[in-house]
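Fold it.
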Amino acid sequence: MRVMGVDPGLTRCGLGAVEGRPGAPLNLVKVGVVRTAADEEIGARLVAIEAGIESWLDEVRPDAVAVERVFAQNNLRTVMGTAQASAVAILCASRRGLPVALHTPSEVKAAITGSGTADKRQVGTMVTRLLRLEEMPKPADAADALALAICHVWRGGAHNRLAEAVARANSGPATSAAAYFRGRGRAAGYSRGTTK
């Protein structure tokens, strides 16, 4: 399974893709960030983030997208920018029919390091080890995006297997697994718990 992780942000939106399955070594596909200038208008910044994410989706061709769940922070301006960038990532993936998973920072930290309170350096160090990289991905937003993707590969196992089974069962043009889970599968004659 190939998963693209998104660590949303307006100034730096971390993007990282890994390939693997639970219990097997993971492989780095790509890592980087989409940057926007703080003095640009918000609309232009969001358009730039969308273009960057769309380009990544075209190149990486993930099976799923994992986005960091926005949590309340003391700085309202920061949380608003993070939420806006997160919405762009969710929109881009959903437009393509890709499954989107949201993971909290503590879920990701616990999955990667074993501690939900790990700091950024600990997460970066484990990402480096797990992907057998020579150096830690920089900036931290890029390492966090890889951590999100790894977390989803490891934690999304049951849901992934179910989606793959539905996709195989419906391998014709009638519906995709993503469409089924959005409820469109029922319009094509599928209902939960039954198959054609």
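The beta strands are 2-7, 12-19, 27-35, 64-68, 100-103.
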